[in-house]
Design brief:
By secondary structure, the chain is an alpha+beta fold. A hairpin with a 3-residue loop joins β1 (14-18) and β2 (22-27). 40% of the residues lie in helices and 27% in strands. The two termini are 20 Å apart. The chain folds into three domains: 2-36 and 74-142 and 323-340, ATPase, nucleotide binding domain (Nucleotidyltransferase, domain 5, 2-Layer Sandwich); 155-185 and 263-318, 2-Layer Sandwich (Nucleotidyltransferase, domain 5), CATH 3.30.420; 187-257, ATPase, substrate binding domain, subdomain 4 (Actin, Chain A, domain 4), CATH 3.90.640. α3 (81-96) packs across α4 and α6 (187-202) runs antiparallel to α8 (251-274).
Length: 343
């Protein structure tokens, strides 16, 4: 125990939001020091890592046949254990610069629907990356702490964390998740819906980077009658002729493309509200719902949720960093961490 305490003095403890789209790392005393895409590029024959993070994302869809770009996280879970381990090792080494004998304590935010097998996989990957202690915390709890909700009070707090791979809806009270529901729909499913729509309507194949740009620039959750419709020229490969070409798409088309994933998220919010105990439901009527995660940045999503639920809606001040901010706060509150950690 004494040894651990001494080691703790020399090591910078880390908090990690291991996301499907991006991995963020928070270092105790420094704040967020790393925010990079969850992408790894490896050589097919030797399995040697070529690039990780931002550099790897630039290579998506552009690699030769002997090199493969992998997203090791899929739908909020580890899809490729070895590659996730390599990615964690890269991020921990990048931010820690540790001496060989010093290992950090690591807290990782994970989706609330994570299975015990997936919990074990995340812990094993972190331990293999050099962590001395690993704690797992449910992302909605972390996000609620990150946005400053009074999670320890006997009030109902409702948070909707729309991430890359999952949407996590949770009702939180007295340091615990009273009810949660997670669906494997988030930013990635929105991208897939746009890609499929463009393919179906225009016979045009577009890449992941282009799709994400369309979502950011034209994506919205509901129409706005008084705003001028935005348009964007997009480039891709014609599926009939095989020749590259450019087309123009508008905001209404992307709204139509996004309807299905957005409806799934809305239905999940409604199911959570239906399963909320009456006393906590009364609190939520007063306090409303907080939206966090990258999906909270989708244009007019707060208006749509407000229309559908009739409740006050708040978008977190920094929705992209809500989870890692919350997990980072737990580095200073180890007693609370031990109460709420799931593993």
């Amino acid at each position: 125990m004494l040894f651990h305490n001494i080691v703790g003095l020399f090591s910078n403890d880390l908090a990690i939001d291991l996301g499907t789209a991006n991995t963020l790392v928070y270092v105790k005393g420094k704040g967020i020091v790393c925010d990079e895409p969850s992408v790894v590029v490896i050589k097919k024959d030797s399995k040697k890592t070529v690039a990780v993070g931002s550099e790897a994302k630039r290579m998506l869809g552009k690699t030769p046949s002997n090199i493969m770009a992998i997203r090791p996280m899929k739908d909020g879970a580890i899809a490729d254990f070895d590659t996730t381990g390599e990615m964690l090792k890269y991020f921990i080494k990048k931010v820690h610069n540790r001496r060989r004998y010093v290992s950090p304590r690591v807290i990782i935010g994970v989706p609330s629907g994570i299975t015990q097998v997936e919990q074990r996989a995340v812990k094993d990957a972190a331990e293999a990356s050099g962590a001395r202690e690993v704690y797992l915390v449910e992302e909605p709890m972390a996000a609620a702490m990150g946005v400053g909700l009074p999670v320890g009070e006997p009030f109902g707090n409702m948070i909707v964390d729309i991430g890359g791979g999952t949407t996590d809806v949770a009702i939180i009270s007295i340091d615990g998740v009273v009810y949660s529901k997670v669906v494997k729909v988030g930013g990635d499913k929105m991208d897939e819906a746009i890609m499929a729509y463009i393919k179906r309507r225009y016979n045009l194949m577009i890449g992941e980077t282009t799709t994400e740009q369309i979502k950011i620039e034209l994506g919205s959750a509901c129409a706005a009658a008084d705003e001028e419709k935005r348009v964007k020229d997009i480039k891709g490969r014609d599926l009939i002729s095989g020749i590259p070409k450019t087309i123009t798409v508008n905001e209404d088309e992307i709204l139509e493309a996004l309807a299905e994933p957005i409806n799934v998220i809305l239905d999940t919010i409604k199911v959570a509200l239906e399963n909320t105990p009456p006393e906590l439901a009364a609190d939520i009527v007063d306090r409303g719902i907080v939206l966090a995660g990258g999906g909270a940045l989708l244009r007019r999503i707060d208006l749509l949720v407000k229309q559908e639920t009739g409740l006050p809606i708040t978008i977190a001040e920094n929705p992209l960093t809500a989870v890692v901010d919350g997990v980072g706060k737990m580095l200073d509150e180890l007693e609370m961490l031990r109460r709420i950690a799931i593993a």
